[in-house]
Every structure is written in structure tokens, then in C-alpha cells.
Amino acid sequence: MDEPIMQEYDISADPALLDPARIHRRLSADAYWVLGRSRATVHAAIAAIAASLKFFVCERSSGTQVGYARVVTDHVTFARLCDVYVDSAARGRGIGVRLAETVRDHLAPSGFRRILLATGDAHGAYEKAGCRGPEGPSRWMALINP
After folding, report:
1. Quick one: which of 111, 115, 125, 9 has its CA closest to 67?
2. pLDDT tens digit string along 70-119?
3. CB–CB of 22/46 below 8 Å?
4. HSE (CB half, 13 Å, CA atoms) of 15?
5. What is the pTM for the complete model shown?
6. pLDDT attached to residue 116
7. Which of 104, 107, 108 is nearest to 130 (CA)?
8. Fewer CB atoms near the end CB (10 Å): N or C, the chain?
9. Are 72 and 80 in contact (CB under 8 A)?
10. How many CA atoms lie within 13 A of 114 on its CB side?
11. Cβ distance 55 to 103 under 8 Å?
12. Cβ neighbours around 130 below 10 Å, total
């Protein structure tokens, strides 16, 4: 990955730097998996401190938030990476890969056997961060609401 690009950005989990309105605008208008998600739902997910960690990428020169990721976890046995988003103007520079690596490295001390995620279009980026398809895929199931 091209590390010099990360000299322009910071990745943080400091909630004081979080911009919930920007996250809602980006996710609800440009993230295919949550198009139209309400502001209340996005803000409730962000506020669920006990069940999730939030990571965001800010441009150093302007402080503008250009990326976001959330991890739903019990901090002991389960973690799911979700709502990973990089602004369209900042894509293709390795920011998403670096964000996924940061999440992976942050969670490493917890000793999770696996961190789950789902993607429809970013398999290559997640593979660069060490992700692969699940072992024994026939074991996995999902409860899906209509």
C-alpha cells in the first residue's frame, strides 16, 4: 500500500472528533448497504458506546472527516466490522485498507478468532487487510428480516 498518502490523514477512535451529521449524510446518500438510513438510526448506532467502537479518518490539513468504520462487539468473543465508508473524493488511495488494518490491529489484543464483515464490492481492499472468506461457509447462517 502507498503509505505516503497516510501522511495526509489521521485515523482516530476519539469520540470528540466524530462528526455524526457528516456520517449520516455520507452513509444514507452514498453507501449502497444503508441508502436512506434515517438520521435517528445512524445517531443511535453511533451512540451505542457499550456495543460498538467507532473509527474515523480525518484529513490533517482541514480536519475534514473522510472515512468512518464501526465495530459492533462485546469486547470478549464477538466483533463485526460494519459501516465502513470512505468519501468518494478520497477513494482509491489506500485509506479504506489502512482503516481496516487499524481496526484489525486495535482488536488484535482481544484475541478474537474472527472478525465478521460483509461487502458487496470491496473484497480486494479487505483482502489487502488480511480478510478472507469464512472457514466452513456452510456453518454460517443469518436471520434476515423481509
Report:
1. 9
2. 999 877 778 999 999 999 999 999 999 999 999 999 999 988 888 999 99
3. no
4. 9
5. 0.73
6. 93
7. 104
8. C
9. yes
10. 10
11. yes
12. 12
